[in-house]
Amino acid sequence: MSNVKEKMTEVIRSQPEDASYEDIMRELAFERMVERGLEDSRDGRVISNDDMEHRIHYGRNKMD
Q1: CB-CB contact of 24 with 12 (8 Å)
Q2: What is d(CA 28, CA 25) in angstroms, rounded to the nearest whole number?
Q3: With contact defined as beta carbons under 8 Å apart, do 27 and 21 qualify?
Q4: What is the pTM of this model?
Q5: How far apart are alpha carbons 21 and 36 in whole angstroms?
Q6: Rounded CA gap, 46 and 51, in Å?
Q7: CB-based burial of residue 44 (10 Å sphere; 0-12 exposed, 13-18 middle, 19+ buried)?
Q8: Beta strands of 7-63 (E only): which ranges?
Q9: Cβ pair 60, 44 in contact under 8 A
Q10: What's the CA gap between 32 and 59, in Å, rounded?
Q11: Interatomic CA distance for residues 8 and 19, integer angstroms
């Protein structure tokens, strides 16, 4: 992402004219979550599906 303001403007402009404040904020938050996930993946901060299943089953939240 070259410019945060440009990305935010793009997300806002992609919303329908009748979008509520909450709709727009939800889309901006979703965009940020996706961007963070991609950054984590690029930086090698990932875990396997098996590890995730184990954490879900045993209630372990933190990545060690």
Answers
A1: yes
A2: 5
A3: no
A4: 0.70
A5: 23
A6: 10
A7: exposed
A8: none
A9: no
A10: 26
A11: 15
Which tokens belong to 45? 């901060």
DSSP code for 11:
H
- Residues 5-52 have pLDDT tens digits of 999 999 999 999 999 999 999 999 999 999 999 999 999 999 999 999
User: Would you say 63 and 47 are in contact if contact means Cβ atoms under 8 Å apart?
Assistant: yes
Instruction: Give residues with Cβ within 8 angstroms of 7, minimum separation 6.
Output: 1, 31
Tokens of 27: 């889309």
CB 46 within 8 A of CB 40: yes
